[in-house]
Amino acid sequence: MQLGLIGLGRMGQIVVDRSLAAGHDVVAFDLDEDAVATAADAGAVPADSIDDFLDRLGSDKRIWLMVPAGEAVDVTLEELEPRLDGDDIVVDGGNSNFEDSVRRAESCPAAYLDCGTSGGPAGAELGFSLMVGGPQWAYDELEPIFDAVATGPDGHERMGPAGSGHYVKMIHNGVEYALMQTYGEGFELLHEGRYDLDLENVASVWNNGAVIRSWLLELCEEAFREEGTDLGTVADRIEGGSTGTWTVQESLEQEVPLPLIYTALSERFGSRADDGRFSRRLANRLRYGFGRHDVPRRE
Ligand SMILES: NC(=O)C1=CN([C@@H]2O[C@H](COP(=O)(O)OP(=O)(O)OC[C@H]3O[C@@H](n4cnc5c(N)ncnc54)[C@H](O)[C@@H]3O)[C@@H](O)[C@H]2O)C=CC1
Ligand SMILES: O=C(CO)[C@H](O)[C@H](O)COP(=O)(O)O
């Protein structure tokens, strides 16, 4: 199958690599010429504008957007839409707000799939977990691509109609915030507490058979190994926060209490004063672990 990819950053390049490795053809575009060159080196056909990108795609266009959520998605769609029709498919694999995705699905001439993507750049080898919303026929049509980008056939599912993929991913991220918060609190008490512990060892033994083992806990172990048991220069500052904010807003609208997710989000906002909390320093480092997000460091 031929896939057009727009947005060749940390995540988009993985979609390119995994699609090529599965034998698909990829046409690649990004505003950043270096990113296009990297995709071309990997075997994709480079495009130097959206028009050039569309010229290089066949008549039934299959397009995957992996640009930052928000304005970049709208700007890209605005350029694509005059040349799309009902036989074409657009996938938004980014962390878009689900209500934006519903709006875009209604106005896009092509079938529109909102695809929550989990696994982060660190998950490249394994493949991603994909939560897809939108028309069944478009999901079925793109199954070979989803098989390639996900961990395999079990790594993707259609959640329901437009918006449902990004809705599920939004709540996934709320859970992610709370898990990071609880690991952070446990390690903070271990760090401040009454024994002089090597936290890499603690994380390692917990990862071997303990009830609370997980990938995030493996990333805690990696963080202590790479930064030291006191997390070295990692600052008490957790960036991000949009998907967690939407999760909390939705919980208020649905009157479903989410005290843990709300607390984890508040800790992020609180961290912006930088008063040195260990739990928040660990969350800061974990965002690098899974997402390759920049790590704010102490001066
Ligand atoms: N990094 C992560 O752990 C995860 C990120 N996501 C989501 O995936 C999307 C992409 O994330 P990353 O790859 O991490 O970001 P990134 O910043 O590494 O890459 C974004 C790419 O999009 C390009 N771009 C921006 N505006 C563009 C436009 N108008 N036209 C063409 N290209 C444009 C940039 O030049 C850049 O190469 C975001 O929505 C993000 O929230 C989803 C799951 C995990
Ligand atoms: O979706 C992700 C992981 O699942 C991205 O890494 C996202 O950026 C995480 O959210 P935040 O930036 O608010 O920490």
TrEMBL record:
Keywords: Gluconate utilization, NAD, Oxidoreductase. InterPro entries: 6-PGluconate_DH-like_C_sf (IPR008927), 6DGDH_YqeC (IPR004849), 6PGD_dom2 (IPR013328), 6PGDH_archaea (IPR032883), 6PGDH_C (IPR006114), 6PGDH_NADP-bd (IPR006115), NAD(P)-bd_dom_sf (IPR036291), Pgluconate_DH (IPR006183). NAD(+) binds at G7, L8, G9, R10, M11, G12, V67, P68, A69, N95. Belongs to the 6-phosphogluconate dehydrogenase family. Catalyzes the oxidative decarboxylation of 6-phosphogluconate to ribulose 5-phosphate and CO(2), with concomitant reduction of NAD to NADH. This is 6-phosphogluconate dehydrogenase, NAD(+)-dependent, decarboxylating. GO terms for molecular function: NAD+ binding; NADP binding; phosphogluconate dehydrogenase (decarboxylating) activity. Gene3D superfamilies: N-(1-d-carboxylethyl)-l-norvaline Dehydrogenase, domain 2, NAD(P)-binding Rossmann-like Domain. SMART domains: 6PGD.
